[in-house]
């Protein structure tokens, strides 16, 4: 059985000094053996409009189709996102909406790990809970444990955006290991 795994990482924040983009960078440096990760910048994805969401790949906005194609090629997703108003940031929800439509949706059944960082105390737990409804609807396969909830992010990253908190680093490493295990398990189930 092929043991190479490709992930796609996305950040739910567009700002330059984003803790969540830094968290994604940390994840890319903590990948388990035989796992690689590409990232996709969500800032160019237009607002969802069903009139532009044609069933044929050649008719969708090119950047949307590129995003969907990268998800299709990935064995699993890594989402690092802030919590906005106790929920999923609009730009991230919008991108998920674009990827969720049609029988060829790359999200259906996809393994996924969500992590988050916030400057405040609750570590994005409410945003991560909102994701559960999306996972249910799309039959996605979330890795629940360990939870990566980085609170008071200003104390956990250095000035250059490196994640320096050893507990957080350990949790990210374990989360990625758990995602790898789930993907291999799913792959095994397919061939047996
Ligand atoms: C529109 C908006 C809503 C926010 N709502 C929350 C919230 O509900 N919970 C929370 O912990 N932080 C909230 N924050 C603060 C973010 O956690 C903080 O800005 C964080 O650094 C953003 O992530 P980033 O560094 O990756 O951009 C909010 C920030 C913005 C801009």
Report on the architecture of this protein:
There is one protein chain. This protein has helices spanning 19-28, 62-73, 90-100, 125-137, 166-191; strands spanning 5-11, 35-40, 76-80, 111-117, 141-142, 149-150. Strands 1, 2, 3, 4, 5 and 6 form a six-stranded parallel β-sheet that branches. It has 192 residues and is of the alpha/beta class. The chain has one domain (5-191): Flavodoxin domain (Rossmann fold, 3-Layer(aba) Sandwich). The mean pLDDT is 96. The relative contact order is 0.18. It is globular, with a radius of gyration of 16 Å. The structure holds flavin mononucleotide (FMN). Flavin mononucleotide is lined by residues 13, 15, 18-20, 82-86, 118-120, 122.
Number of helices: 5
Total count of domains: 1
Assess the beta-strand content as a share of residues.
15-25%
Structural class: alpha/beta
Could you tell me the CATH topology label: Rossmann fold
Mean pLDDT: 96
**Largest sheet features:** 6 strands, parallel
Helix content: 25-40%
Ligand species: flavin mononucleotide
Give the helix/strand layout.
Blueprint: E1 5-11, H1 19-28, E2 35-40, H2 62-73, E3 76-80, H3 90-100, E4 111-117, H4 125-137, E5 141-142, E6 149-150, H5 166-191
Parallel strand pairs: 1-2, 1-3, 3-4, 4-5, 4-6
The structure holds flavin mononucleotide.
The site of flavin mononucleotide has 14 residues, from helix 1.
């Amino acid at each position: 059985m092929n043991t190479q795994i490709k992930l796609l990482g996305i950040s739910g924040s567009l700002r330059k000094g984003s803790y969540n983009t830094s968290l994604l960078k940390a994840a890319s440096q903590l990948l388990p053996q035989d796992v690689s990760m590409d990232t996709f910048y969500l800032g160019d994805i237009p607002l969802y409009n069903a009139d532009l969401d044609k069933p044929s790949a050649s008719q969708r906005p090119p950047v949307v189709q590129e995003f969907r194609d990268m998800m299709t090629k990935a064995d699993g997703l890594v989402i690092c996102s802030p919590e906005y108003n106790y929920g999923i940031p609009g730009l991230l929800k919008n991108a998920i909406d674009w990827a969720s439509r049609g029988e060829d949706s790359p999200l259906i059944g996809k393994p996924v790990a969500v992590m988050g960082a916030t400057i405040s105390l609750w570590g994005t737990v409410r945003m991560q809970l909102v994701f559960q409804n999306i996972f249910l609807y799309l039959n996605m396969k979330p890795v629940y444990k360990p939870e990566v909830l980085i609170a008071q992010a200003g104390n956990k990253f250095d000035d250059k955006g490196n994640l320096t908190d050893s507990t957080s680093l350990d949790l990210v490493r374990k989360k990625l290991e758990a995602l790898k295990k789930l993907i291999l398990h799913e792959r095994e189930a397919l061939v047996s």
